[in-house]
Structures are given as structure tokens and as C-alpha cells.
Amino acid sequence: MKKGVMRPGHVQIRVLDLEEALKHYVELLGLIEMDRDEQGRVYLKGWTEVDKFSVVLREADQPGMDFMGFKCLDEASVDQLEKDLLAFGCEVETLPAEELKGCGRRIRFKAPSGHDFELYASKEQTGKWGLSNRNPEAWPRGLKGIKATRFDHCLLYGIDLDRTLELFRDVLGFDLAEQVVAPDGKRVAQFLTASMKAHDVAFIDHPEPGRFHHASFFLETWEDVLRAADLISMTDTSLDIGPTRHGLTHGKTIYFFDPAGNRNEVFCGGDYHYPDHEPVTWDADELGKAIFYHDRQLNERFLTALT
């Protein structure tokens, strides 16, 4: 049953050198800088996104993800979800409006996986970048690099997948769209959605809590993914793997790293999910094909390079 969570809203990523990071996220990935704050954080968005920002970069000593936020239908939904989170056993922190510039009050909690998440209902809407809301053109001129359209999801590594699934399914209203199951029946990967997308957040079982695998950005076509590969090579950006196709979700994808070592993905296509769909299940001994459908071989770096 849906509980008021609409979609992924933002992710705050730690980078080691802010100016180097901006060259990567703006000039290569093609996100648009929207604002900066007194803490030195920089706010970015994809050109199709109507809210003011979806990516926040913060300079720090260690790379990784600070938190991921989900936008809810309204303030009443946030109020009810706060009560439900407390009843589930989560500690909840309230952050005031404008602690993130242009964003309303947020409630933050830690999932059993060890990751911090936020819920909020209001954020300043600036509209699709370069386009009017009335009689809009097909796309704006002046886009840079890969021309990422939107922040789509995060993949996170951590502990206690069962309890994390309970939290996202029973409290937040997500569906389990896809999973990887070991021979003993243990779920070692889970792909969760609050929408029709293949996933809005995903978790991989890992002995260390709170690790960040990647933030993903949506492109429209396979040709866009191939063009992204060209630009990654042209700029001598560190490539992880691709272009290729996933078995899981069937998205067409490429992975690469920002200067701090945080992994990015750009992808197109992929499955869709309705609430009446049964979860798609992969056997763990088919994990190579599940992750990299074409060569069916696991890339060790893909499994172990985390921030």
C-alpha cells in the first residue's frame, strides 16, 4: 500500500575537491548548477527536473553519500510517516526548512542497512531548465556533456537486508520489484520502487554498513549511452564498465567514477513495475549474467569499489 512517498528527491555526495567535482558533474555529466550555500555546498539538477536541485555536493575528507532524500505527496504524509518510523524503531531527526536551500523541513532516519535517508514534501520548483511550462520546445539549447536528464536512483551496500526491506515495504510503501536469492534462500540483493520504475533505491548485502555504490542518472536512448562512453574516454575519466546491458532491470548502462572515487551510472531503458507484479528473482549463481548480461562475467571492481 502506498504511503505517500513519490520519488527520489536528492542525494548529498561527499567529494574531495569541489572544483574538480564540478568539472565532472557539470562539464561531463551535464548537470546544471543552481545554487551554493554558506556551508559551501553546491546544488545541481538534471535538465528535465522541475524541483530546484537533486544533487548536493559537499567537500569533505572522505568520499561517499551523506544521505538520500525522497519527496512525499504532502506535509500530512510526512507527519504520518514520521509516526510510523518511530513505531518501527527508527530514530528520527527533524531538519528545519532552508537547511538545504529551497527545501522545506525534512525528517531524517537511519535504515537498518546503515544509510541515512530523508523525507520531505516541499522544495522550490524552478521548472525544467531552459524550457517554459507553456508551449515548451523539445529540449533546451546549451546543455553540456552527457546531458543527464534526471537523478534516478542509488545502489547502496549494507547490512540487514531483511529488516531494511520491512522498513521500505511496510512503513514507506515501496514494492520489491527484483531480487537476487542465494541457494539457502537468503536475499542478497533487493531493488525497491515507490513508482513504476524498475527501482528507486537498491541494496546489496555487505558486511559493512552504510556503503555507497553509485548514484544513477537517466538518459533517453542507447545512442545517448554510447555518446556518454565517448565523452568518458575523451576526458580520460575513470571507467568502471560498459556500455553494456543489465540482466537485472534490463537497463542499458555505463559506469564511471568522479574524481573522488564515487561511482556514477548513466543508463536508458529498463523494466517497469506495477503493484500487482510479482518480484523478478535471479539466482545468485547467475549473478554474472544478472549484472552484466552480455559477457556474463562479474567485474571485481564493480563489487568491491565502494565509498
Automatic annotation (TrEMBL):
Keywords: Aromatic hydrocarbons catabolism, Dioxygenase, Iron, Metal-binding, Oxidoreductase, Repeat
Any one GO MF annotation of this record: catechol 2,3-dioxygenase activity
UniProt cofactor(s): Fe(2+)
InterPro entries per record: Catechol_2-3_dOase, Fosfomycin_Res_Enzymes, Glyas_Bleomycin-R_OHBP_Dase, Glyas_Fos-R_dOase_dom, VOC_core, Xdiol_ring_cleave_dOase_1/2, XylE-like_N
Catalysed reaction equations from the record: catechol + O2 = (2Z,4E)-2-hydroxy-6-oxohexa-2,4-dienoate + H(+)
Enzyme Commission numbers on file: 1.13.11.2
Entry-linked CDD domains: 2_3_CTD_N
Top-level lineage group: Bacteria
Subunit composition and interactions: Homotetramer.
Family membership noted in the UniProt record: Belongs to the extradiol ring-cleavage dioxygenase family.
Protein name according to UniProt: Metapyrocatechase
Organism: Marinobacterium alkalitolerans
Organism placement in taxonomy: Bacteria, Pseudomonadati, Pseudomonadota, Gammaproteobacteria, Oceanospirillales
